[in-house]
């Protein structure tokens, strides 16, 4: 299987406006933002989507969520609030088959989403 655009960003093969990275995850600004602040956080490990995770991925997913909260604080979203969204499958709007969370903030969010 060929690398996704997110895997290429994680591997440093494509440029991105990176806001955080470590050995397990990379967070970068979305090129098509849906809110004033829209950052994607992805695991370096290529996992297709949430429907594809296994129990062995639990520590990685926990790390991803902790780092998402840190990124949200770093971006000044913590006080007013922010939303974390994962799309899993075509009907959910999954555009890139690489697990990624959307950190959205900087405006009031509506409910229900979608």
Task: Give the SSE string.
Answer: HEEEHEE
CATH superfamily: HIT-like
Query: What is the total domain count?
Result: 1
Beta-strand portion reads 15-25%
The largest sheet is: 5 strands, antiparallel
State the name of the first-level CATH class.
Alpha Beta
CATH fold call? HIT family, subunit A
Number of separate strands: 5
Q: Globular, elongated, flat, extended or rod-shaped: what is the shape?
A: globular
Note poorly predicted spans: none
For the terminal residues, how far apart are their CA atoms? 30 Å
**Architecture (CATH level 2) name:** 2-Layer Sandwich
Q: Given the helix and strand composition, which structural class is it?
A: alpha+beta
In which order are the strands of the major sheet placed?
Answer: 1-2-3-5-4
Rg (CA only): 14 Å
Polypeptide structure, described:
- The structure is a single chain.
- With 114 residues, this protein is an alpha+beta fold.
- The chain has one domain (5-105): HIT-like (HIT family, subunit A), CATH 3.30.428.
- 20% of the residues lie in helices and 23% in strands.
- The protein is built from 2 helices and 5 strands.
- It has a 5-stranded antiparallel sheet with strand order 1-2-3-5-4.
- The radius of gyration is 14 Å and the shape is globular.
Question: How would you summarize the topology of this molecule?
Answer:
Elements lengths: L4 H6 L7 E4 L3 E5 L7 E7 L14 H17 L7 E5 L14 E5 L9
Antiparallel strand pairs: 1-2, 2-3, 3-5, 4-5
